[in-house]
């Protein structure tokens, strides 16, 4: 569309349906990334090192096309003080601390419990939005969030409430990870809209990876690589991280933080399905029920008018 007063071409923001597909694709790639990462860990790679290496390399992968497209614009984000503060917060907390505390929670419990705790992130997003907008929760929000959070709980724990009787540090680190995951849904979209997805996500991942490097001993490069391991690493760096982060953040900038928080819960659905198909793991009845709850919640939120 051409603006009649300025003569400039206006860029139309994609609609809700397109934004939903983009965000869900990003979440789906995260789910596949979890399955491929599990394969690498089974081959002997340390989870912390793997996550840290993926962050730094995928950040660089995103910054390269950004530099080719606009070499000068690559550093525009560093010229505005408020943008720099937001970017550093994203890198340190939404990327760095989120990954670190998530793996610590796994260490004190297991991946299922840690994932179940982290999936409470949409609750924090919704509470923040309600407080900022000074409003009461909408009926659709009160219906959707219990569905998707309950679905994630069923997938992660098979409905065994007793499994949540865990080490206190597992709960503490898991809740910190969930809070940081909520920041990831809220903080980056303004920078994505202003500077672009590649620039925002690329810098965020790279700086966050540098922040984690001393804790993960990134300089201790593991040996024993072969073609399948190298291919798996390429997958978690490019589709599983660079594309996943970029697509999800771009989708979040379109659909809003509350919907993005719910769409993020599509990740365990894909992870469970891919594990069954690719790794031969069988479904549990509660996993099927959890998948149904999540998809129902996504459908309800998508067709609603609230954001």
Structure description:
The chain is mostly helical. It has one domain (16-220, 233-303). It contains 13 helices and no strands. Helix 3 (81-108) packs antiparallel against helix 4 (111-118). It is globular and about 50 Å long.
Brief descriptors of the model:
single chain, 13 helices, 76% helix, globular, disordered N terminus
Q: What's the pLDDT, averaged over the residues?
A: 80
Secondary structure tally, helices: 13
Strand segment tally: 0
Overall tally of structural domains: 1
Task: Tell me the overall shape.
Answer: globular
Gyration radius over CA: 19 Å
Euclidean distance between termini CA atoms: 26 Å
In brief, what are we looking at here?
The chain is mainly alpha-helical. 76% of the residues lie in helices and 0% in strands. It has 13 helices and no strands.
Walk me through the topology:
Elements (H helix, E strand, L loop, with lengths): L15 H27 L4 H23 L11 H28 L2 H8 L2 H13 L5 H19 L10 H19 L1 H8 L1 H20 L10 H29 L1 H7 L2 H14 L5 H19 L4
Helix pairs in contact: 1-10, 1-12, 2-3, 2-9, 2-10, 3-4, 3-7, 3-9, 4-6, 4-7, 5-7, 5-11, 6-13, 8-9, 8-10, 9-10, 10-11, 12-13
């Amino acid at each position: 569309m051409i603006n009649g007063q300025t003569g400039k071409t206006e860029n139309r923001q994609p609609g809700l349906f397109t934004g939903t597909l983009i965000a869900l694709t990003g979440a789906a790639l995260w789910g596949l990334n979890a399955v491929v990462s599990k394969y690498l860990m089974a081959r002997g790679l340390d989870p912390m090192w793997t996550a840290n290496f993926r962050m730094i390399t995928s950040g660089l992968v995103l910054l390269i096309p950004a530099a080719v497209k606009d070499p000068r614009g690559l550093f525009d984000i560093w010229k505005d003080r408020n943008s720099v503060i937001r970017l550093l917060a994203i890198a340190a907390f939404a990327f760095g601390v989120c990954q670190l505390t998530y793996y610590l929670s796994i260490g004190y419990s297991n991946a299922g419990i840690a994932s179940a705790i982290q999936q409470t992130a949409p609750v924090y997003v919704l509470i923040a939005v309600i407080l900022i907008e000074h409003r009461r929760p909408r009926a659709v929000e009160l219906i959707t969030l219990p569905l998707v959070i309950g679905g994630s709980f069923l997938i992660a724990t098979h409905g065994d409430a007793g499994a949540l009787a865990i080490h206190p540090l597992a709960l503490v680190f898991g809740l910190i990870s969930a809070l940081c995951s909520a920041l990831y849904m809220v903080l980056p979209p303004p920078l994505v809209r202003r500077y672009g997805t590649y620039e925002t996500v690329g810098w965020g991942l790279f700086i966050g990876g540098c922040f984690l490097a001393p804790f993960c001993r990134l300089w201790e490069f593991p040996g024993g690589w072969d073609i399948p391991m190298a291919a798996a690493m390429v997958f978690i760096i490019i589709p599983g991280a660079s594309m996943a982060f970029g697509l999800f953040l771009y989708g979040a900038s379109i659909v809003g933080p509350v919907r993005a928080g719910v769409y993020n819960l599509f990740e365990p659905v894909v992870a469970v399905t891919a594990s069954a198909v690719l790794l031969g793991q069988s479904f549990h009845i509660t996993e099927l029920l959890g998948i149904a709850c999540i998809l129902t919640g996504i459908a309800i939120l998508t067709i609603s008018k609230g954001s």
